[in-house]
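Hello support,

Our group uses your service weekly, and this is the first time we've seen a run hang past the timeout. The protein is Putative haloacid dehalogenase-like hydrolase protein. I'm not sure whether the cause is the sequence or the server load. Input pasted verbatim:
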Amino acid sequence: MPMKIEHIFFDLDHTLWDFEKNSALTFNKIFLENKINLEIDDFLKVYVPLNLKYWKLYRNEKISKEDLRYERLKKSFDAISYGVSDAMIDKLATEYMDNLSSFNHLFEGAIELLDYLKEKYTLHIITNGFEEIQSKKMINSKLYPYFEQIITSESVGVKKPDSRVFNFALKVSKATKENSIMIGDSLEADIHGALRVGMQAIHCVFDEATPTDKSITTVTSLLEIKRYL
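Update from on-call engineer: The timeout came from a worker crash unrelated to the input. Re-ran successfully.
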């Protein structure tokens, strides 16, 4: 990988912040509090792929933020034939967002990697996550001090992989496409989005189900990134 890198842009969820683990803990908490009598693993088997499906629709401007929050829960409960009122779905959707940032497991090696990179590069975040909770995640997980700029898609008005997100991030970070690299888990949103504007990229593949591209530098653990930076 040809490198003259000065700026590193990270995705947050599924890349540094262990979204699936923290999400499962959040659901376990709110289900207990609301007396939702379900095995959490049974729920997650249907929720996780549905959540990815609805996030893709949201990313592609096919549904609204409100539709995403409601439909991913509604369709999950329907899929396992568990009756829940619309009022309860709205309540769970709100409580999920309120509690998600209280669990802050990071992927193994995250802090060690950031300590290593911080000495050599300027670090930033580009995230499609909801703005109101992304900063809470970063503060509560002690990630905030590592990053100079935190760019959310909501603040830009468009979502990754839209080139405008990456160009905005480069501008506010005073970086160039030639001296920047994107690190993320989504081949479509993070990697292809960054490559289209001329940035370099490293694809984090922590799950066997994640689509990959053999032409792109890929790592299966965060600490493996040290080999390239």
